Amino acid sequence: MSATWYECKVKYRKIDENGVQKVTTEPYLVDAISYTEAERRINEEMSAYVSEEFKITNIKVANYAEIHPFEKADRWFRSKVSLVAYDEESGKERKTNMHLLVQANDVKEAYDNTTHVMKNTMGDYTIPVISESPIMDVFPYFSGEGEGLEALEKFNATKVSKIVIESMDDPLDIEEVDTIVAVE
User: Fold this and answer.
1) N- or C-end of the chain: fewer Cβ atoms within 10 A?
2) Are 72 and 24 in contact (CB under 8 A)?
3) Strand, helix or coil at 109?
4) In the predicted model, is pLDDT for residue 167 greater than 90?
5) Measuring CA to CA, which residue among 111, 26, 33 is closest to residue 68?
6) What's the confidence (pLDDT) of residue 157?
7) What gap in Å lies between CA 14 and CA 18, rounded to an integer?
């Protein structure tokens, strides 16, 4: 069963970089099976981060086919991927678009991460658009039992970890990153 992601907009007071308290509305993603569960989950998650009162102003189904956190990244990017298929009846190419949410530090890294995610795709594809997403954080559902707890820990560790790579001539694949991190 695939995950249904809900974008929840939360309004609350926060202190900006100048030390001024202001009211802000920020979008977050939660994995849930219904709007009601999405509301319950965002309430739980936000109460852990926000000490004051907050208000959920909007909940809608997010149009993401997949969510991919990456180590050492702090922002979320929306990648539009066009899958190219050949229609044998009409003899024409058809494109089917899907949107991925990938974590990266900049647009170039988001492109590299998107290509890494798509590397085992059998068909042809293009990446026509990558843009920074306003999503502040992603809260996937984990049951908290056995494998679910391990998956939650792995997801959270991936979101907060930092990588140090001095310089490399060619793009990294994940095996190289794992080797570099293990050596340091």
Assistant:
1) N
2) no
3) helix
4) no
5) 111
6) 61
7) 11
Residue among 7, 37, 35 nearest 141 (CA): 37
| 139/38 Cα distance (integer angstroms) | 10
pLDDT at 123 (0 to 100): 85
Q: Are strands 92-104 and 75-87 parallel, antiparallel or unpaired?
A: antiparallel
**How many whole angstroms separate alpha carbon 27 and alpha carbon 63?**
14
What are the Cα distances from residue 3, in Å, to 31, 60, 66, 87, 168? 6, 14, 8, 29, 36
Listed in sequence order, the DSSP H helices in 92-173 are 107-118, 147-160
- Parallel, antiparallel or unpaired: strands 92-104 and 66-68: parallel
- Concatenating the DSSP letter of every residue in 62-75 gives ---SEEE--TT--E
pLDDT tens digits, one per residue of 5-44: 999 999 999 888 888 999 999 999 999 999 999 999 999 9
Bridge partners of 51? none
